[in-house]
Write the structure tokens for this entry.
Amino acid sequence: MNEVLVRSGGLYTTVQDAGRDGYYAIGMPPSGAMDRYSFVAANMLVGNPDSAAALEATYLGPELEFTDPRTVAVTGARARVTVNGDPVPQWTSLRVAPGDVLGFGALSAGARPYVAVSGGIDVPEYLNSRSTYKLTGIGGFEGRALAEGDRLPLGGLQAPPRDGLSVPEEFLPEFPEVVQLRLVVGLCSYRLTERSLESFLETTWKVTKDADRIGYRLRGGTIEFVEREQPFGAGSDPANVVDLGYPIGSVQIPGGNEPIILLNDAVTGGGYATVGTVVSADRDRVAQTGTGGHVRFTPVDVDTAVQARLDRETRLSKLRAVLGR
Amino acid sequence: MAETQVRLPEARYEFGGDEFVFVELDREMSLHANFKAMAITGALREENIAGIVDICPSNASYLVRLDPERLHPNDLVTELRRLEHSAGDLDEDLVINTRIVDVPVLFDDPWTRETLLRFRENHQDPNVTDLEYAARINGFSEVGELIEAIGSAPFIVTMLGFVPGLPFCYQMVPRSRQIEVPKYVRPRTDTPERAFGYGGAFAVVYPVRGAGGYQLFGIAPAPVFDNSRSLPDFHDRIAFPRPSDILRYRPIDRNEYDRLRSEVEASTFRYRIRDVEFSPTAFLKDPDAVNRDLLKELYR
């Protein structure tokens, strides 16, 4: 049948791949898996290409019933994962048979588990990607999160990977109490007073309940803007600038007390002063930080930002070699 | 027009992490800054540099998204600085091939009125409508005069973004005649699809229902975004507006609104579009004359 039956969608589970590039200029964000490392590792474990569509869950994972023999792997957040009620390891390839049910209990660390299935989730591509973008209801499974009763199409099987293939300990992500996010300060950071920028970087921020694929709102401090006569076209609030493009990962502080980190499904532009950008590799860490979690920003330069990305790709290449993929 | 004398400051180059370069041409809005953003991003597009993912001209700035594994952001900035000098100066003879489009709008409509009344506590002046507030602070004696001013001169699309297909539109009039309004004190959590809004010096049509902070003036019968691509104007492209499109927001009555809605429902609606050659230099010299010609061409 080449389908997975969704017995429960979990809290917010969507189909995501490596993202939908090339449409930022019309205002469409790339979407795609937020924690790229966990997403690619899951695909490696089941023998898929790195960018095959998989499932990204949030806090509570889905319940899935298989209708044919497949290999599955669960990576990302640390969770209680079961097959037919029996606990199974994460970061490990698992063979499932027709009728087997993959289930989730509570998370013990992180925020987003990833589920890859051999053959990939074969929903139709929209603008060259299978990633869900909920705002306009495109991509993924009918442009929305999974719900009970959905039947997810699966792709044809490639060479079946070895069962029990497992990611070694040293390749597993860490889930620290306070998550350090490397930030390239800039964009419109001239809007902050020097003291405000210092205090922004010294504050441990708490993730509020408004934290999703669009962005994370943080609380924990207040920021002052440099007083000025607002430039023509910007609007009267001190946080306003003439509407401009927002990088993914950029941080803005409307109102001065609620920084927002923009993420994969974010708005692509607007009229709030942006003060810096979280380096792309650390969006993986944001993805695994949930409501109530704590983050701090560490300033880095652009070379460090690029190196962080190369380091993650090197780590994935090493993992690929270890797994014999 | 005063803007011909405007000298833009030095461009500011900023890294948006490892994946973006942001270039601010000016902190204030002007057509001059936007023409420069369009010229540089146009020249950059022609170069087809490997590793560039998206090129996004914005109002008085632009943003480039790149793949840092193929192109180092430092190398991109070097190239952008070069382009600022070779392509960034407004060429006297520059002519932009663009379109002028008739965009009907029903002002003071029941749908945006219902929405704005629900969010009065988020607004600067809870006791009046957004139109009444905007008319007052821009020195119009009544709402009708404000609507007439919006319809009297076309707008140019200076940026696309926020959400897919949303055009930021800047009216093609001297600054002394620009309408300017603040954004809501706290953004709304709801805005009807196709709402016509105004914030700062920009008019927008909201492509989809959702959050928004612009003052709500009316609603357009025709969409600017159609992900099913069922309307003829959307067969090749899910977003209708393009950068540098010239849009004329034409006030319509309820009868015309209902008629155009039926055309949209039947997938027969087509925008009135004319291809035009637009000279920024001629425009900056005599905006009213250029606008008159543009509108004459549109309704010919």
User: Anything to note?
Assistant: The helical segments of chain A are 36-46, 194-202, 283-287, 302-323.
